[in-house]
Amino acid sequence: MPQLTDDDRIALAEAWIEQDPDPETRDELASIVAGVKAGDAAASADLADRFDARLAFGTAGLRGEIAAGPNRMNRVLVAQGAAGLAAYLLERATEAAATSVVVGYDGRRNSEVFARDVAEVIAGAGVRAILLPRMLPTPVLAFAVRHLDTSAGVMVTASHNPPNDNGMKVYLGGADQGTQIVAPADAEIAAHILRVAESVRVPDLPRGSVETAPESVVDAYVSATAAVAATPAAQPWVVYTAMHGVGWETLRRVLDTAGFDAPTLVEAQIEPDARFPTVAFPNPEEPGAMDLSFEAARASGADLIVANDPDADRLAIAIPDASEASGWRRLTGNEVGLLLGWQVAEQVAAAGRDGTLACSIVSSPGLEAVARAHGLDFRATLTGFKWISRAPGLAFGFEEALGYLVNPDTVRDKDGISAAVAFLSLAARLAAEGRTVADHLDDFTARFGCFASAQVSIRVTDLSRIAEVMARLRAAPPSEVGGIRVAAVEDLALGLDGLPPSDVLRIRLEGGARVMVRPSGTEPKLKVYIDAAATEGSVAERRAAASEAVARVEAGMRELVA
């Protein structure tokens, strides 16, 4: 793209204003343009940031800050995205009349507005458009793609991103079974979007009539998800938070159908609120995000905390822990994934069935040990459920970022509601035996070994910093990390292990520890994943050995990526 001048950007911005249906972003951009014309250097830099690039459409669809301009998330970009998706679907269709899209949305800022734009533009292109009846969790949309047998699905959400972000995530039906898009579909849809952006003004895009999906779609999801649970033989005392998102209404119905008692609610976080007023980031992984849950659990004497992120596709679990200042400890995504994977493996093996346990390459290698012990297949995929969900013969999949797929016949994506029901079934069984989740973690360590993990996550304001760190590690790989010699450095950009090329470095250390380094696919972060295992000695000795190795490697990696 040629270097733009302020005059070029002003012309582009004024053309943008003319086609923007949103008065708020029109006024915002007009104010910036006025600043540029008045010689304001900050306004010039802001305009350049908005117009020198375009928000990329990739395998996560579109996601970004809500604001004016092509490098932000707004109604112009949403309409262009919808028109591009419709063109892609019609190009692939053998019969245009059979092409259909179901659209869902959560409780974030502008989610319903964006969803209606998507549905109306898709309908205007001649594609049947079906809008879910109200704000609902992402897993319900993923379910609806298969349940309604649509060609595609669009979910308007930014999941657990900061409050002013939003996005649109695309799923494909038919042979893709309601999974998220992967290459080459992402690039093909992106090309159609660019053609629309370059040739059609948004006001000139035709809009059509939209159907509203019946409540029976939600009823079917509730019924199918409740079936994941075994009848609870005991009822652990549970605290639940929706993290200001849309999870509670649907989870409440699922729990009631499955026979679970209603949990104690974190009332301040239970209703959808696009401001996310009680948390710095609406992500259960972030420090402080579960503080209100811990407070409610202490007050009620609970046995377990269950948390969803705002669109309820992720699940967090916390258990009592006297060694923590709060009295509670959030389990890592790896710990929850290994316990759920073990439960599924036992169920599959008991039924005499075959199946595959799958996780992303940055998740705990402990799942492979579980699969081998039960005679099941194991598959390590690239990060993201767009890959995990495609594992052949999938029985269970997870990734360390609190994502779990426990019911592949219902939803081919991470699902924080079905995962919550599956984990509550496990907790209920343990309670009936007079045991706790902490006891079960000990059992896992005794049987399979201790698989310790840690993560270094560096949030940046300048994305070039991430590229610089990755380039530096490739150009001068470390010979040791934390005093442990490096056995091998593998660059997955070359497409190792039969995986598609990916911007990931894998550092293997002597003694078996492993480090994975990658840019986040959804946030401005560099992520470092550290894993180490110990299989000798008592449970306590295994934990001590694995934890020591992880601590040494973590300290070493923090120095390397600083």
Describe what you observe in this structure.
It is a single chain. With 562 residues, the chain is of the alpha/beta class. The protein folds into 3 domains: 53-213, Alpha-D-Glucose-1,6-Bisphosphate, Chain A, domain 3, CATH 3.40.120.10; 236-447, Alpha-D-Glucose-1,6-Bisphosphate, Chain A, domain 3 (3-Layer(aba) Sandwich); 449-561, Alpha-D-phosphohexomutase, C-terminal domain (TATA-Binding Protein), CATH 3.30.310.50. It contains 17 helices and 22 strands. Strands 1, 2, 3, 4, 5, 6 and 7 form a 7-stranded mixed beta sheet that branches. Strands 17-22-21-20-19-18 form a 6-stranded antiparallel beta sheet. Strands 9-8-10-11-12 form a 5-stranded mixed beta sheet. Helix 1 packs antiparallel against helix 2, helix 4 runs parallel beside helix 5 (111-124) and helix 11 crosses helix 14 (416-432). It is globular and about 70 Å long. The mean pLDDT is 95. Keywords: Isomerase, Magnesium, Metal-binding, Phosphoprotein. Its cofactor is Mg(2+). This is Phospho-sugar mutase.
The value of Rg in angstroms is: 24 Å
Outline the biggest β-sheet: 7 strands, mixed
Number of helices: 17
CATH topology of the largest domain: Alpha-D-Glucose-1,6-Bisphosphate, Chain A, domain 3
Q: How many β-strand stretches?
A: 22
Give the termini distance in whole angstroms.
Answer: 32 Å
**Beta-strand content estimate:** 15-25%
- Indicate the CATH class of the largest domain: Alpha Beta
Average pLDDT taken over every residue: 95
How would you classify the helix and strand content by structural class? alpha/beta
CATH superfamily of the largest domain: Alpha-D-Glucose-1,6-Bisphosphate, subunit A, domain 3
At CATH level 2, the architecture of the largest domain is 3-Layer(aba) Sandwich
